Amino acid sequence: MSNDSVIKKKSMEFAKRIVGLYQYLCREQREFVMSKQVLRSGTSIGANVAEAIYGSSRKDFAAKLQIARKESAETLYWLELLHECAYLPDKNFQSLYGDCKELMALLTATIKACEE
Among 39, 50, 84, 101, which residue's CB has the most CB atoms within a 10 Å radius? Predict the structure, then answer.
């Protein structure tokens, strides 16, 4: 399995978890502002990965992955804020945060490989 298909699969799984988080935040926590932000950035990672896979060049591929990496960084921020504001329990935070950091590391490694 190539690195881009691993990232595609992991970003899709992460996006599904983020959708579940959004639903939980809206239903159980009645939080609608930050939940919308984490939904947007967390699902955007996979959307940019999908776009990268069909990029017109190696440079285009890397550029889309860089956008996905930026969206990962934003998602980390929203997860931290939700956790600090007591909307996201420790266990859920640690799991989602770890998955997002793993995605970021995969994206970074793939971007670096494109630049070599």
Answer: 39
Per DSSP, 56 falls in state S
Name the band, by pLDDT with cuts 50, 70 and 90, for residue 3: low
Per-residue pLDDT for 2 more than 60? yes
- pTM check: above 0.90: yes
Q: Given a cut of 70, is residue 16 above it in pLDDT? A: yes
Gap between the Cα atoms of 112 and 116, Å rounded: 7
Q: How many residues can be counted in the chain?
A: 116
**CB of 34 closer than 8 Å to CB of 81:** yes
Task: Label residue 89 left, alpha or beta by phi (over 0 means left) and psi (-120 to 50 means alpha).
Answer: beta
